[in-house]
């Protein structure tokens, strides 16, 4: 274990001989670069640097077409270089205003990215600069020796890969989710040198050919197993068949190996679950010469090797005896190390007790780092909150000042208990405590929000540390929290329009849009105006927002979306004492269209609820009669599918209430824009929702 590590901070140095094992270079968040090799199953350190600023990236470099064995690390705004023996030969201060987030090295070319800024240096001299429209998560450059030009590719949070030429944008490649990591196919860009593999934060994997004029998508693998987001990718021939496999590390601890058997797209060949997110992954020969392995480095700095060496050796009893002796010596050395550590812990504890009792005692709070991810899942319109701590979590208290539902997560083994909340305004809507089992370092929660209700979700994380300490993390639940950025929308749908005019700047209206909607970059976009497209993950309705200084136009096929925007934007403008001129154009056709989108979901959920209510009675009949052949086929099928039905109902307990709420809001909003208050008719609407068909529902909306 080397201490907490960031994404892409572990690399294998090239082997010095044909059969030699490879050394491992890894950088942690204390700024220490450790280089070590494995001898007889033990880690032997080659060199270790002094602590400094936290290391954001570690890459290998060297002259083109020579072994890449120089180690480069990015920490803060500085890039440092070390030889394979640990001698520092470079300290390059970039003077960037923000910390470096991503780095790629190719010969004398250095590519660096801070949050929104890309810089290209050659021999430490500034060459090119680009300002991205959204946060940059990763950067790489196509191999210059193959494509004969410098082509940097940026992975940006707004679901695009930006391909550059010098300081200019050549073109954009749309990808299915926010890309978090880039890698060259086969480690060298494939035959053409133009093939780039990308992984997204929602777990999709794809390959695109970045040609000189346009992108050519080759294959894409959707995250059907609902696994974590992808943090690292490597190519290595682990099966020894001459074709490199794709090694993938995810943020839920899943390690995957994809093989290219015959099909154009890779097939999952092997997977393995680690207890923490995998920050870096590499293929090589580390532990024993002649046996390749996959090396993974997790968030808290554990390095784990999966080897191709057979565990059960064939051979006589002498071989087994030798193995057991090897094992016994390893076990005894581990026992000694454990005893030594326990003694050290006792001594430190006594020292702490004594120092805390003396008159000049100073209270010290142990620092610990928390890795967090709060994202909207497209499939079930819920938010995933993932909390990862470098040490075991004792408990997590979740508090919210807006109505949200906590959903069950299969991987979650923590015990949850709810506390009652006051009914007064401005008080809590949710107080829940998750008590974790021993050695839990990662906790995943799922919450479902309601559009129009906005506020803050807070998580109080307490690890098993002495003295007891806690960190608070805050997450904004936005007014249109179930909307997700998309590349395009269907312009043929009936749309409602909201137009704002007033004495506001571009930056001001942008800050209001950031407040209302997720996935909008906080930085004000370049240029005079901007258009963003969104899709509602729950209903599939859409929103187009176009705004500039003094004017904003919002179009949606859902009148409730327009109503929420109108209320929130007026409130924000009033806070800043800005006078707004608001006009709207409402389409009755759009209400019918939204009801047609909601109704199939409503019917499905009503049927599911009815089936679930029948399960107990049917099971009782089954016990009494012993045989259910006399039942109608539809009831028999309910019994056969009982477990799946209960599982689905448990996963989304309040789904039906949410749909009822959306239909009620749609009804109120439709008439609100006409200046009529129909709240007295809501009980009538709810009554008829129980067994109403689509046409009947539309007729009620039009007759009211």
From TrEMBL:
An example Gene Ontology CC term for this record: BBSome
Boundaries of every BBS7 GAE domain copy: 366-475
Keyword set includes Coiled coil: yes
Domain BBS7 helical hairpin: residue ranges: 588-701
A family per Pfam: BBS7_pf
Name by which UniProt lists this protein: BBS7 protein
Lineage: Eukaryota, Metazoa, Chordata, Craniata, Vertebrata
GO BP annotations, alphabetical order: intracellular protein localization; non-motile cilium assembly
Domain BBS7 platform: start-end pairs: 483-585
Domain BBS7 beta-propeller: 10-308
Organism name: Rhinopomastus cyanomelas
Gene behind the chain: Bbs7
N-terminal signal peptide: none
């Amino acid at each position: 274990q080397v201490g907490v590590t960031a994404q892409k901070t572990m690399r294998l140095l090239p082997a010095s001989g044909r059969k030699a094992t490879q050394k491992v270079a890894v950088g942690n968040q204390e700024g220490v670069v450790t280089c070590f090799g494995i001898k007889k199953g033990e880690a032997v350190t080659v060199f270790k640097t002094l602590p400094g600023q936290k290391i954001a990236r570690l890459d290998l470099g060297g002259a083109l077409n020579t072994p890449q064995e120089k180690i480069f690390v990015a920490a803060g705004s500085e890039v440092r270089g070390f030889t394979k023996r640990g001698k520092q030969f470079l300290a390059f201060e970039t003077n960037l205003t923000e910390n470096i987030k991503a780095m790629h090295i190719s010969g004398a070319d250095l590519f660096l990215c801070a949050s929104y800024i890309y810089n290209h240096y050659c021999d430490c001299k500034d060459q090119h600069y680009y300002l991205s429209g959204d946060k940059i998560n990763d950067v790489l450059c196509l191999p210059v020796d193959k494509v004969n030009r410098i082509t940097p590719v940026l992975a940006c949070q707004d679901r695009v890969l930006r391909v550059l030429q010098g300081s200019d944008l050549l073109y954009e490649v749309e990808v299915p989710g926010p890309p978090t990591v880039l890698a060259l196919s086969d480690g060298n860009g494939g035959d053409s040198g133009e093939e780039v593999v990308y992984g997204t934060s929602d777990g999709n994997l794809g390959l695109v050919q970045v040609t000189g004029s346009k992108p050519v998508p080759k294959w894409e693998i959707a995250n059907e197993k609902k696994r974590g987001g992808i943090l690292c990718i490597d190519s290595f021939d682990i099966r020894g068949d001459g074709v490199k496999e794709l090694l993938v590390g995810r943020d839920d601890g899943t390690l995957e190996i994809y093989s290219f058997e015959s099909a154009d797209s890779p097939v999952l060949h092997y997977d393995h679950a680690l207890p923490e997110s995998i920050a870096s992954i590499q293929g090589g020969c580390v532990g024993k010469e002649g046996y390749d392995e996959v090396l993974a480095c997790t968030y808290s700095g554990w390095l784990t090797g999966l080897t191709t060496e057979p565990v059960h050796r064939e051979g006589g009893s002498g071989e087994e005896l030798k193995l057991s002796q090897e094992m016994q010596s390893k076990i005894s050395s581990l026992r000694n190390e454990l005893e030594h550590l326990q003694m050290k812990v006792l001594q430190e504890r006594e020292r702490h007790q004594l120092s805390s009792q003396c008159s000049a005692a100073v209270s010290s709070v142990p620092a610990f780092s928390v890795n967090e991810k709060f994202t909207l899942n497209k499939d079930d319109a819920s938010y995933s909150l993932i909390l990862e701590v470098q040490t075991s979590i004792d408990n997590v208290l979740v508090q919210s000042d807006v109505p949200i539902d906590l959903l069950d997560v299969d991987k979650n083994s923590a015990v949850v208990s709810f506390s009652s909340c006051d009914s007064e305004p401005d008080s809590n809507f949710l107080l829940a405590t998750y008590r974790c089992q021993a050695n839990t370092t990662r906790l995943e929660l799922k919450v479902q929000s309601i559009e129009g209700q906005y506020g803050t979700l807070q998580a109080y994380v307490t690890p098993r540390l002495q003295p007891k300490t806690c960190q608070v993390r805050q997450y904004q639940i936005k007014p249109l929290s179930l909307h997700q950025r998309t590349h395009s929308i269907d312009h043929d749908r009936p749309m409602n329009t909201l137009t704002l005019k007033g004495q506001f700047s571009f930056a001001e209206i942008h800050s209001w849009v950031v407040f209302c909607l997720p996935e909008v970059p906080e930085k004000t976009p370049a240029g005079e105006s901007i258009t963003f497209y969104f899709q509602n993950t729950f209903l599939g309705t859409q929103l187009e927002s176009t705004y500039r200084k003094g004017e904003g136009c919002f179009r949606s096929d859902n009148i409730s979306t327009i109503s929420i925007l109108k209320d929130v934007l007026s409130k924000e403008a009033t806070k800043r004492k800005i006078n707004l001129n608001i006009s709207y154009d409402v389409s009755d056709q759009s209400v019918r269209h939204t009801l047609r989108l909601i109704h199939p979901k409503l019917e499905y959920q009503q049927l599911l609820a009815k089936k679930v209510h029948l399960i107990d009675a049917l099971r009782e009949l089954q016990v009494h009669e012993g045989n259910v052949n006399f039942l109608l086929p539809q009831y028999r099928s309910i019994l056969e599918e009982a477990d799946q039905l209960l599982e689905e109902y448990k996963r989304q307990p309040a789904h039906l209430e949410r749909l009822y709420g959306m239909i009620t809001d749609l009804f109120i909003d439709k008439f609100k824009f006409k200046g009529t208050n129909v709240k007295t008719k809501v009980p009538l609407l709810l009554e008829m929702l129980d067994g109403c068909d689509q046409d009947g529902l539309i007729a009620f909306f039009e007759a009211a």
